[in-house]
């Protein structure tokens, strides 16, 4: 069983208190307005939460992955939209540059990202390239000392609000995924614009936008890593990102469970609180078990990452289980609240809407099961 050490638990409590006092009270309002919570981001930056696993010499807090995912859980418990912004910014906005960037790229981009002065995003998905990354149609063609980038990306979290984007494009279509290259693209360069804003079921306060590239001139020095290695590098980044999304799912599940638990203590039916009815008490017991199991899977994957071991299978397991139980627990919470649970007077309907995306982004759960099955079956 994974138990946080004294330092990790102390930091978790700081984040939990901050999230409860500063983020949770406005979560419903941001959701209703579909308003990007810049107020949260600025406050989180002040606490050093926007670059937690980044080395201190690059402007980060230098924490381990376990501490980082514990913070994501607490932020997501208060507001899943803010948790999504933080997780995507850190895990797929900063980490590609930290893992694959040159020293010059790291010094240029990471400090501002880690300190929350700028926001990062990751652009892989296209209308015909989601789970099948080989379907990438965006191209980057070499022209002298620069690449000409053309195409579009869709469903990009932090799109429009982010300043720095890791964009995957095909530099050699004949090579499939081996012809995909990653580029650092800055907001504001000529030819880079934003398309429609998505109006979503959940995490409505996080921005999800289309990115459009029309003859964008990208200098050679903005290649991230090695030409043709963008896809393989992205898969490594996404393994880590899945731990973050799993943590987000645990946070949502915890929020739904606590709402149902509190309601069960005050709602009286048949002369006693419904929490004393065995059918409700057993539902709550199952919720508690499932959340703790998910939390332990997530921490185990994070610990493997911190210790330098392979964690791809464990990240997929954590993401699959945590997201599935988040949806189930949110549904059960609505059931416990009955008609009230179906209204916006209580937050459990929002928790269900927020939970659903965790089964989809950073690799659908069907893809996660493919990763897991290939790992456990191997070649036979």
Quick description:
By secondary structure, the chain is an alpha+beta fold.
Model description:
The protein has 380 residues and is α+β, with helices and mostly antiparallel strands. It has eleven helices and ten strands. The chain has helices at residues 6-23, 27-33, 38-46, 65-78, 80-100, 103-114, 230-266, 278-306, 312-337, 348-356, 365-377, and strands at residues 120-123, 139-143, 146-157, 164-170, 180-186, 192-197, 208-219, 223-224, 268-269, 272-273. It has a four-stranded mixed sheet with strand order 1-4-5-8, covered by helices on one side. Strands 2-3-7-6 form a four-stranded antiparallel sheet, covered by helices on one side. It has a two-stranded antiparallel ribbon with strand order 9-10. Strand 9 and strand 10 form a beta hairpin. Helix 9 packs antiparallel against helix 10 (348-356). The model has no long low-confidence stretch (mean pLDDT 96).
**Cross-sheet strand order for the largest sheet:** 1-4-5-8
Quote the average pLDDT.
96
Number of strands: 10
Helical amount:
40-55%
Question: Which structural class is indicated by helix and strand composition?
Answer: alpha+beta
Low-confidence stretches: none
- Ends distance: 32 Å
Total of DSSP H or I helical runs spanning 4+ residues: 11
Order of helices and strands: HHHHHHEEEEEEEEHEEHHHH
As a percent range, the share of strand residues is: 15-25%
Largest sheet: 4 strands, mixed
């Amino acid at each position: 069983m994974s138990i946080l050490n004294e330092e990790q638990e102390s930091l978790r409590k700081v984040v939990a208190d901050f999230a409860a006092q500063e983020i949770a009270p406005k979560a419903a309002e941001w959701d209703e307005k579909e308003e990007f919570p810049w107020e949260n981001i600025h406050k989180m930056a002040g606490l050093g939460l926007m670059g937690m696993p980044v080395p201190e010499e690059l402007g980060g807090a230098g924490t381990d992955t376990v501490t980082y995912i514990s913070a994501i859980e607490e932020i997501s418990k208060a507001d899943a939209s803010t948790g999504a912004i933080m997780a995507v910014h850190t895990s797929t906005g900063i980490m590609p540059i930290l893992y694959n960037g040159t020293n010059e790229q790291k010094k240029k981009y990471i400090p501002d990202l880690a300190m929350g002065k700028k926001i990062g995003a990751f652009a892989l998905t296209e209308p015909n390239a989601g789970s099948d990354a080989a379907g990438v149609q965006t191209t980057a063609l070499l022209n002298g000392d620069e690449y000409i980038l053309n195409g579009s990306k869709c469903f990009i979290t932090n799109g429009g609000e982010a300043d720095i984007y890791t964009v995957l494009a095909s530099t050699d279509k004949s090579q499939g995924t081996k012809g995909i290259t990653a580029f650092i693209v800055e907001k504001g360069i000529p030819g880079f614009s934003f398309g429609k804003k998505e109006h979503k079921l959940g995490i409505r306060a996080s921005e999800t936008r289309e990115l459009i590239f029309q003859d964008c001139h990208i200098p050679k020095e903005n290649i991230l890593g090695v030409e043709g290695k963008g896809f393989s590098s992205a898969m490594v980044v996404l393994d880590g990102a899945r731990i973050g999304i799993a943590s987000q799912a645990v946070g949502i599940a915890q929020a739904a469970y606590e709402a149902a638990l509190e309601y069960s203590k005050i709602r009286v039916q048949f002369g006693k609180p419904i929490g004393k009815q065995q059918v409700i008490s057993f539902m709550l017991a199952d919720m508690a078990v499932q959340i703790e199991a998910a939390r332990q899977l997530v921490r185990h994957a994070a610990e493997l990452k911190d210790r330098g071991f392979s964690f791809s299978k464990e990240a997929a397991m954590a993401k699959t289980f945590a997201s599935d139980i988040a949806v189930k627990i949110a549904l059960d919470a609505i059931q416990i609240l009955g008609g009230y649970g179906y209204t916006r007077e209580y937050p459990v309907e929002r928790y269900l809407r927020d939970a659903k995306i965790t089964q989809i982004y950073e690799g659908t759960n069907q893809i996660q099961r493919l990763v897991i099955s290939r790992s456990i079956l191997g070649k036979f």
